[in-house]
Amino acid sequence: MSESLTPPPAPPEPEAPPTTLAGRLALYQRAGGIATPVATALLAFAISGLVVLATGHNPILAYRDIIRGAGLDWLLHPWRTNTVETAPYNLTQTLLQTTTLILTGLAVAFAFRCGLFNIGGQGQYFMGLFCANWVGVSMVGLARPAHILLAVALAALAGALWAAIAGFLKATVGAHEVITTIMLNWIAYWIGNYLFQQGGPLQGAANKPLNIPISGDVARSAKLPVFWGDPDLQGLHIGFFVAIAMLFVFWAILNRTRLGFEVRAVGYNPDAAAYGGIKVRTNYVRAMAISGAFAGLAGGLDMLGYLYHFGVSDVQASSIGFLGIAVALLGRNTAIGTGLAALLFGALLFGTTHGLQSNVIDPSLAGHLTEMIQGLVVLFVGADLLILSIWRARGRVRRQAAAGGPAK
Amino acid sequence: MEQATVLEMRGITKRFPGIVANDRVDFDLERGEVHAVLGENGAGKSTLMNILYGLYQADEGEIRVHGQPVSFSSAKDAIASGIGMVHQHFMLIPVMTVAENIVLAIEPTRRGVYFDPESAETRVAYLTRKFNFAIDPREPVENIGVGQEQRVEILKALYRSADILILDEPTAVLTPQEASELFQILRGLTREGMSVIFISHKLNEVLEIADRITVLRRGKKVDTVPREGATEESLARMMVGRDVLLEVEKTPGEAGDVLLEVEDLQVVDDRKLPAVRGVSFNVRAGEIVGVAGVDGNGQSELVEAITGLRRAESGEIKVGGAAIHHGSARKMLDAGVGHIPEDRQRRGLVLEFTIAENAELHDYNRPPASRWGWLFPGKFVEWAERLIAEFDIRGGRPGSKAAVLSGGNQQKLVAAREIARDPKVLIAAQPTRGLDVGAIEYLHRRLVDERDEGRGILLVSLELDEVLSLSDRILVIYEGKIVAEHGPDASEEEIGLEMLGGGRKDAA
Question: What is the DSSP string of A298-361?
Fold first, then answer.
């Protein structure tokens, strides 16, 4: 009679279901490993291929052209780096988009890890962008490193403060962050319309007499060094390395700091976090601020790296902050996943608009193909959450049955 | 009464991925008997009953009801064969009356369309008279107590002409008085020829109510024994597979200095209604103070206020003589209050965190776990390894997620973390809820050991047996007030009465 105290086959008790939307999404995100996001992306491509087929064109050729358009064929001859050639040039453009998407993706992912659904990446991105434009245009006479650092830092700070408003409202009056961040997006949107309009405070001095609602160009001293390509033709700037470094910073904050421990504890289980002595509300504000800093940084780097100026029509057309949601979802809120998803979406964004020939796909459809593939990926990310939730529910019933718990 | 077998289950096997939940289990039920199914969590009791009730289909084996082989593909089939089940969690609609709940889904109608409340009430009234249930069919369910709700569930089964009744852990939500009333009802039912299957893991009540007892362990039937000749010790041995110490061995406590003082504490619940209404007591070093009470009488709010998880409206809390105002959870931890929370999965652990991270849930923010904001994962692991060794936590390594541990080992991890912080006062809220006999034995032993180490222990439990067997002093809480205080030798009946608001208030 020397059996162990507790029977080993007893399966773990079923987890309490998370209560928040972000909590639920995050829960499903942790299930399924790497297979589901890969399958999700492949499925989206397959279905989009069927649509191309339905229009009477060859989907294989279309995808070949998208890959070429994204410059990924450069990998076949990596020694040809001169951006006068098509492939290296396209790749630099893809990586420019990737830079932005990494950061707007991290903005969503970081909040997710604290159990918050930050839909406000677009607004935070705008605030960073506006701020960088203001500093870059107006504070002339600074030394280059100082000018750049000041502009970048204030851009990140602007994004952080913008997002912290939503965190603060959640912590104090319980306003749901999904609602408040959407509202803040619209406020940022209209601020942008105001800033760059005719007579607006950030309208370029040279543009005023011409009645052009566009800002001035940032000063030469605030422009980021371009390391690949021609600065006047949207070359790849050092912000790319900043974004890559931020992937590591994201990982390190979450996994190696007290702050990250608290954020993750609150994200997984706010009740247990409070019991552990962690201030849950403080963490809501802090996590939103850090999220917003990532998005604000994206705006700052874009402005100083290749946009240099911004106008009312640009404000109205911009949606790269929203794409960060899809990046984070597909990347499952991890550093590596976000990096890879950002590369995928960056390639799509540039490849579909610049690679497709009219004999491969109807030119009027090309732009829509971009949106379609993006839309399907987002849809399937949502669907894979659904499939996973069904899968988990089945598993839960089985485990409960095995545990002798209630089956409902 | 004729002796007839109304139900036979032969060779029932049910496999789930990675586990055989039922392994060739035989079970039979005779007319007019109470047949208890006894076993630890995960022994396969509920699986067996869910198969009988049509919620699962057995992989192998055969079921006969009244001698006829049956095959249930849903609960509907089981109900049609005269089987009724009362689940642990009631499925009643609060705003509807007792009668409406009972007839729900098979309502009597007028002209085939219109609900006929008079007829429903008449039929339900007939049933309550026949089986002698004291219950008003016209009362809305939201106005009746838990014990009465359970009777409504039983009536639901009877209304559907059940003659085999399955009760899943029916006493888990009841006070001792309500439990003995339930037993009266069950005896009445069996006199009328009903047969009852009584699922439980509580030895004493099985011995009180059952005619025969079937014990399951790890999916297999150990034996079926008559009540005569069975003892708590023999049943526990069959359940666990070894000898179990049921009584906690302890010497009388030697109370020392006052470590926790609560003075006129007022706390409101989530709906801002008063939950704790002027509670005062103290806990001294080397004693276990038990708080007995029915669920929902302010225990949770009391514990949350003392541990800083809920702001008290007024009153004072002193730990080790020092008053703590507006104590946050962090302040209380630092003052030396340890807390084993009542819900280890919702409060006590972050299930997605590793064992190591959970082991440092309070102390991640100070050396050696971290310095200047930077964590040292190696130190987390070292600490977790110590706790795992010292508290015999099984089923996971420091890097495993806490979710993979069994309930007993999760609770050991919580207890290990709290005790290893060397608290002055340890608040143990329902420390053995949902645990099996072996784990309960360990935790009880450990609480007494920590008392003997000189800690003050406040034990809040809904299990009166647990309070009685561990406590040196017993406080009875009712509607947010301490209504009585007893020494260790108090009688179960007296406390049970006080838990319901009766009894003398001048007891000391």
Answer: HHHHHIIIII---BHHHHHH--HHHHHHHHHHHTTT-HHHHHHHHHHHHHHHHHHHHS--TTTS
Q: Do B346 and A264 touch (CB under 8 A)?
A: no
Question: Residue length, chain A?
Answer: 408
Query: What are the helix and strand counts (H, E) for chain A?
Result: 15, 2
Chain A residues close to B170, C-beta within 8 Å = none
Tokens linked to B71: 């095959």
What ipTM was predicted for this assembly? Answer: 0.81
Single pTM value for the model: 0.78
Separation in Å, CA B172 to CA B47, B150, B213, B442: 18, 11, 19, 21
Distance from CA of B259 to the nearest CA of A (A): 21
Strand partners, A263: none
Residue B462 neighbours by CB distance under 10 Å: 22
To the nearest whole Å, the CA of B177 is away from the closest chain A CA by 25
Q: At what angle do helices A35-54 and A335-354 cross, to 10 degrees?
A: 10
Substitution target from A29, A249, A261, A271 for chain B, most B beta carbons within 10 A:
A261
Structure tokens at B170: 């029916």
Q: Which pLDDT value is given to residue A386?
A: 63
B258, B279, B316: which is closest to B483 by C-alpha?
Answer: B279
Output the six-digit token pair for B425: 């006062």
* Residue to test with chain A: of B85, B339, B345, B363, most A Cβ within 10 A: B345
Q: Which two tokens stand for residue A406?
A: 């209630």
Which pLDDT band holds residue B457 (cuts at 50, 70, 90)?
very high
Q: Which two tokens stand for residue B178?
A: 């309500």
Alpha-carbon span B209 to B229, nearest angstrom: 14
* pLDDT at B392 exceeding the cut of 50: yes
Q: Which two tokens stand for residue B11?
A: 């060779």
In angstroms, the CA B90 to CA B251 distance is 41
User: Distance (Å) from the C-alpha of residue A65 to the closest C-alpha of chain B?
Assistant: 43
